[in-house]
Amino acid sequence: MMSADLEARVPGFLRGVRLQRDRVRDQWIVQAPERAFIVDPVAASILQRVDGNATLAAIIDALASDYDAPRDLIARDVIDMVEDLAARQILVCKS
Amino acid sequence: MTIPFPMSLLAELTHRCPLQCPYCSNPLALENVRNELPTDVWMRVLDEAADLGVLQAHFSGGEPMARKDLPELVRRAAKAGLYVNLITSGILLDEASFIPLVDAGVDHVQLSFQDVTPEGADLIGGMKNAQARKLEAARVIVAQGVPLTLNFVVHRLNVERIPQMFDLAEELGARRVEIAHTQYYGWGLKNRATLLPTRAQLEQSERDVAAARARFGAEMAIDFVTPDYYADEPKPCMGGWGRRFINISPSGRVLPCHAAETIPGVSFPTVLEDGLESIWTKSDLFNRFRGVDWMPEPCRACDRREEDWGGCRCQALALLGDAGATDPVCRRSPDRSRIDAAIAESADAPLTYRRMSNHKTQ
User: Fold this and answer.
1) How high is the ipTM of this complex?
2) Which residues form the signal peptide (chain A) (predicted)?
3) Residue range(s) defining the domain that contains residue A30
């Protein structure tokens, strides 16, 4: 797939999965069936923008501007993470 | 010692259940409905659990859907930010009973199946025509879009049908499957001679699960719980005593695991007399086997002591009469021969079903 096609996809959380602020431990976590895991601040900043409407391109643009970082670097991180989480039944991507 | 925050609350709302599975994890001394906690106490406990750091609330039983106030409890747990898991037999689950739970915020359902065949299911559940109701329950859950886990407890009488269990999960649209070998406490221990699989069966079950993992890949999450009798090292029971897990019994006793009520000589803290945080951090019961200071040899000097935490206290108690002993599953335990003797004892005896009349009170 070309990167424009890759970035046109829209990631969303699977039903039964969510990002949540863990106020007791002061960290971000993902809650899923029979498991919960800590997400680091970088992953949390990506997942906070996953709402089932925003395209990967829009998420990458927003992060590149927030962090004032090279867009291709951010794009690679975001796409890698989203694909990893899609393989673990956390996210699903609509094209 | 720093006391960790608990992750999970197992809320055993009731011991009432339409099924009578002979490996039920409930204690032999089942609690009467008259002793069940009232709604308002559960509400307070759910809030306290979230404040204490619990992330997931597992509503279980018995059959939790036997409680009329389940939708209210689910709503309160969801409002407190807890991830709500319903652990059910499905016997009481239809559209009319399930939609209020979905509206209240159930995140996930774990539905138990006793077998893939109606005959096998009736034999284990001790109830006629249970399978058809479970199949219908699965369809209702999936139609509501709620993620579904199928749970199969396996043992000598059904373990050879693991491939068909995965077929059923796929057909029903389950996202997760648990294949859990029976654990031998309470009712399971009573029926151990009949239920314990052979080593050949265990090895076949491992191959069947590996084949399913290869077949489904990321499409289906698979959890496999092996029977620790055939292991060389004990399981890290509950992830360590008082480290991750809180169990609350129908009458409000707070326990580090669901079998802990068998331990003699301790007073069991209850939510009717104390708050959850105080029980978790200060009670004798939760501190008794927490960490490594309580350990005897060979655990004390073992390099695995913070991996398996000495294994299961309730297993040491049930098999050796001493909750403070090394789990006899461990090859380094001086009492490993007790496990090997149990394996040699297997025999086809009639099942003792889980019902009040099958347990004499002392």
Assistant:
1) 0.92
2) none
3) 3-89
DSSP B18: S
Q: Where does the pLDDT of residue B259 fall: very low under 50, low under 70, confident under 90, or very high at 90 and above?
A: confident
Under DSSP, the state recorded for B160 is G
> Between the CA of residue B358 and those of B22, B61, B112, B192, what are the distances in Å?
11, 18, 23, 16
- For residue B83, the chain A residues in CB contact (below 8 A) are 18, 31, 36
- The sheet with strand A35-39 has its strands ordered as A18-22, A27-32, A35-39
Contacts with B108 from chain A: Cβ below 8 Å: 16, 33-34
CATH classification at residue A17: 1.10.10.1150
CB contact, 8 Å: B173 with chain A?
no
Q: Return the half-sphere exposure (C-beta side, CA atoms, 13 A cut-off) of residue B131.
A: 14
Q: How far apart are CA B183 and CA B338, in angstroms?
A: 16
Asked if residue A20 belongs to a domain, the reply is: yes
CB contact under 8 A, B221 and A16: no
Query: Touching check for B176 and chain A: CB below 8 Å?
Result: yes
Structure tokens at B338: 């007790």
Cβ neighbours of B55 in A, within 8 Å: 20, 22, 29, 31, 36
Question: What is the domain count for chain A?
Answer: 1
- pTM of the complete model: 0.95
Is A48 inside a domain boundary?
yes
Residue ranges of alpha helices (H) inside B53-81 are 70-79
Q: β-pairing, A91-94 with A10-13?
A: antiparallel
User: Distance of alpha carbon B173 from its chain centroid, rounded?
Assistant: 23
Rounded-to-integer distance, Cα A38 and Cα B254, Å: 27
Residue of A nearest to B176 (CA): A33
Query: Which residues in A lie closer than 8 A to residue B149 (C-beta atoms)?
Result: 33-34
* Phi, psi angle pair for B255, to nearest 5°: -130, 150
Q: Measuring CA to CA, how many Å separate B12 from each of B60, B62, B99, B351?
A: 5, 7, 21, 24
| Cβ-nearest to B218 among A22, A34, A89 | A89
Q: Determine whether the interchain pair B83/A88 forms a contact, defined as Cβ–Cβ distance below 8 Å.
A: no
